């Protein structure tokens, strides 16, 4: 987080809270999230898209993509700052609602929403459902028919289309090339929209597309916007389509090697491109919606670990690599194992004058791919007991966490103005053992 500084003893502080205090109060590993930074990114992102769209006389709505990191407090922070929320399962919807989010400002994604999930979304009055398949379209229409007793119950829907763009990112993070599971093709979309327009219960509000995640350049967004506006134009049919949702995917810096485009520049680049495409086609500019997740929470998070062992390993040609093991790993941050993602690390409990040594930070799991930071310089006097901070873990770390190897799940602590509080409790070993039915003491089981 930008609030990270060193105190007089050289201890890392986050929003004025020393890392050593956090360890003493909450233990390690620990997810720490800077509330003001999340709020700041939310405000800045909303302002960027609002001012970009205002120049063209239309509005912008920014949905926070909850999959990046969802819990009640985060829902409150982002909605408080004026964001809507995008959920993609019944579980995420339940969190957003329990936290008090206005259902009308929620969008519901997903390629396999169940009947129960759709019924619940309709019943709570969700703002929009993003349709992903023909089966879902008919499923939703049938639900609305069942719900339409005296009056026709209607539901606002968007249609997710796959713009066919190969986003320049990890293969697993790209979502709009042809051979993947999300959305309708550009070719099928007109028939889908035509079908929706036949059904009085479904209100077509616009198209949706999302090309992938952790994208740095603007080129993919601009190309995708051009294709989607072209489709949008063909669907107008003399009428109005109120919104165009262009998804999220805005990249952040994980290490000093990363140089993402500032959100203001991205926002005006994308919005101006849509405006140009509309002008060329002589059509009115729709309101725009966006769904950033990572860009709101990613850099606001930092994970604290305690170093447990260090070990020099011969790696051939007389060279050595120092392996530094921490007390978590792929259970609290699966991203290096899943995507080869890069992170950085710093000793948080002290500063050292020792020479930098190239190390590999690894976790405590039974896999050699359990890497936290593949290559990092740490002072060569690094010892067990040192605290290690890994920044930029606010997005897709807690949300992808597991209990692999029965490693307890860390709590999430929010820091603000010198104080810290738990916003998500950890999952303890006792919690895990309580799920093991083989430990039930009942005679029936033992029988
Ligand atoms: N909208 C839709 C429809 C999405 O599928 C996603 C992300 C987003 C918005 C938000 O994307 P963001 O702004 O956060 O990039 N676990 C991976 C990322 C998976 C993203 C899935 N969809 C990772 O750790 O990098």
Automatic annotation (TrEMBL):
Residues recorded as bearing N6-(pyridoxal phosphate)lysine in the entry: 67
Keyword line: Amino-acid biosynthesis, Decarboxylase, Lyase, Lysine biosynthesis, Pyridoxal phosphate
One family name in Pfam for this protein: Orn_Arg_deC_N
Pathway: Amino-acid biosynthesis; L-lysine biosynthesis via DAP pathway; L-lysine from DL-2,6-diaminopimelate: step 1/1
Molecular function terms from GO: diaminopimelate decarboxylase activity
Enzyme class: lyase
InterPro entries: Ala_racemase/Decarboxylase_C (IPR009006), DAP_deCOOHase_LysA (IPR002986), De-COase2_C (IPR022643), De-COase2_CS (IPR022657), De-COase2_N (IPR022644), De-COase2_pyr-phos_BS (IPR022653), Orn/DAP/Arg_de-COase (IPR000183), PLP-binding_barrel (IPR029066)
Catalytic activity, as annotated: meso-2,6-diaminopimelate + H(+) = L-lysine + CO2
Orn/DAP/Arg decarboxylase 2 C-terminal domain segment(s): 34-394
E.C. number(s) listed in UniProt: 4.1.1.20
UniProt: pyridoxal 5'-phosphate binding residues: 249, 291-294, 396
Quaternary context: Homodimer.
Entry-linked NCBIfam families: lysA (TIGR01048)
Entries under HAMAP family matching the protein: LysA
Function: Specifically catalyzes the decarboxylation of meso-diaminopimelate (meso-DAP) to L-lysine.
Family listed: Belongs to the Orn/Lys/Arg decarboxylase class-II family. LysA subfamily.
Listed name of the protein: Diaminopimelate decarboxylase
Gene encoding the protein: lysA
């Amino acid at each position: 987080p930008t609030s990270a500084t060193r105190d007089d003893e050289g201890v890392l502080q986050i929003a004025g809270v020393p890392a050593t205090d956090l360890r003493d109060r909450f233990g390690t590993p620990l997810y720490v999230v800077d509330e003001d930074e999340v709020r700041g990114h939310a405000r800045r992102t909303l302002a960027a898209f609002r001012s970009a769209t205002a120049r063209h006389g239309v509005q912008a709505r920014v949905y926070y993509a909850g999959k990046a990191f969802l819990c009640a407090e985060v829902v409150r922070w982002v909605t408080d700052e004026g964001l809507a929320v995008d959920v993609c399962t019944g579980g995420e919807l339940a969190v957003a609602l329990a936290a008090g989010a206005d259902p009308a400002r929620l969008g519901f994604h997903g390629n396999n929403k169940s009947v129960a999930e759709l019924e619940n979304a309709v019943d709570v009055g969700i703002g929009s459902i993003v349709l992903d398949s023909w089966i879902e379209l008919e499923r939703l229409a049938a639900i609305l028919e069942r719900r339409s007793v005296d009056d026709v119950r209607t539901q606002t829907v968007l249609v997710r289309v796959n713009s066919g763009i190969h986003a320049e990112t990890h293969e697993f993070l790209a979502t709009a090339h042809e051979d993947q599971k999300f959305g309708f093709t550009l070719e099928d979309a007109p028939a889908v929209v035509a079908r929706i327009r036949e059904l009085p219960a479904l209100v077509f509000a616009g198209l949706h597309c999302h090309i992938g995640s952790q994208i740095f350049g603007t080129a993919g967004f601009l190309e995708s916007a051009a294709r989607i506006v072209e489709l949008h134009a063909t669907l107008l049919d003399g009428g109005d389509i109120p919104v165009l949702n262009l998804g999220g995917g805005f990249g952040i810096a994980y290490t000093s090697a990363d140089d993402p485009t500032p959100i203001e520049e991205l926002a005006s680049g994308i919005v101006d491109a849509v405006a140009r495409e509309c002008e060329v086609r002589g059509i009115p500019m729709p309101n725009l919606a966006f769904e950033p997740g990572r860009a709101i929470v990613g850099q606001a998070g930092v994970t604290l670990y305690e170093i447990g062992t260090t070990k020099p390993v011969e790696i051939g040609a007389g060279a050595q690599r120092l392996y530094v093991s921490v007390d978590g790993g792929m259970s609290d941050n699966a991203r290096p194992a899943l995507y080869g993602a890069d992170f950085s690390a710093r000793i948080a409990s002290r500063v050292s004058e020792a020479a930098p040594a190239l190390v590999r930070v690894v976790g405590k799991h039974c896999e050699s791919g359990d890497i936290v930071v593949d290559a990092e310089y740490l002072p060569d006097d690094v010892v067990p007991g040192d605290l290690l901070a890994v920044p930029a873990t606010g997005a897709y770390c807690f949300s992808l966490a597991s209990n692999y190897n029965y490693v307890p799940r860390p709590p999430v602590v929010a820091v603000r103005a010198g104080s810290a509080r738990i916003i998500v409790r950890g999952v303890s070993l006792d919690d895990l053992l309580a799920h093991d039915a083989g430990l039930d003491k009942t005679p029936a089981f033992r029988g």
